[in-house]
Design goal:
Blueprint lengths: L2 H22 L3 H53 L6 H83 L3 H13 L5 E5 L2 E2 L8 H9 L4 E2 L6 E3 L10
Parallel strand pairs: 1-4
Antiparallel strand pairs: 1-2, 3-4
Helix pairs in contact: 1-3, 2-3
């Protein structure tokens, strides 16, 4: 068989095995990443909620000071009412009293809203803390499962990757580029046997002249439809690296 074709067959076999190792890990890498992202999001949310609570505390302190200030003014205005001698002075003091009462009422409402929001935020922080603890437990378990799988497959994966590197060094660059392009486009399958005169990948019938070249095993042949390399399984057992 053509030496390069032999190497492509072996390369495909190695890639199948590497794919199987990656599939053994399943979605564990994505699961770990997902838990890490969610934990980070909850931690950031806790910080934001905490900052908002601090802002509300400052708002409450400022509003309480405002209330004290206007209550002092209100007492003074009410005392002055007994001293006025004209309607104009009375109307002016009454307007000041009404304004002070409004400012006190507005400040009290602001305090109530800030305290209510802070209460809800404190509950939200507690919920986030509970969720983070649960997510952390799930993350630890997912990491252990992933680490276990990595440990179990590390030696085999390193061996296969080293073998793959040696094979690719001996495959002409232009052919290797085609192999990689087709493999990515065809779900990891770039080299297939001919089966009943048809491409073993897309099942389309191979034209007579290409079939002759495939069965003679002395040329590199690709499928006109799917682009995969096609070989005859007869006589392909010996692989020259």
């Amino acid at each position: 068989m053509h030496e390069t074709m032999n190497r492509l067959i072996k390369l495909q076999s190695v890639d199948y095995q590497l794919k199987a190792i990656n599939e053994k890990m399943g979605n564990l890498p994505e699961t770990v990443l997902s838990f890490e992202v969610r934990i980070q999001e909850e931690e950031e949310k806790k910080i934001q909620d905490g900052n908002r609570i601090s802002q509300n505390k400052a708002i409450v302190i400022k509003s309480e000071g405002k209330i004290m200030d206007y209550r002092t003014k209100l007492e003074r205005y009410q005392e002055q009412l007994y001293l006025v001698t004209t309607n104009r002075e009375y109307d002016a003091l009454t307007a000041e009293i009404d304004y002070a009462k409004k400012e006190i009422s507005d400040a009290e409402n602001i305090i109530l809203e800030a305290e209510e929001e802070s209460k809800n935020l404190e509950e939200s922080i507690q919920e986030s803390e509970t969720l983070v603890r649960s997510l952390t437990d799930d993350l630890d378990k997912a990491k252990k499962d992933l680490d276990k799988t990595i440990q179990e497959t590390r030696d085999e994966k390193e061996r296969l990757e080293a073998e793959r590197l040696e094979i690719t060094k001996k495959v002409p660059r232009n052919i290797l580029n085609v192999y990689e392009r087709v493999r990515k486009a065809r779900r990891g399958v770039a080299v297939v046997p001919i089966i009943r005169d048809a491409c073993g990948g897309c099942n389309n019938r191979v034209i007579p002249q290409k079939r002759v070249d495939i069965y003679k095993r002395n040329k590199i042949v690709t499928c006109d439809i799917c682009g995969r390399f096609i070989y005859s399984e007869e006589g392909c057992l010996t692989v020259d690296k």
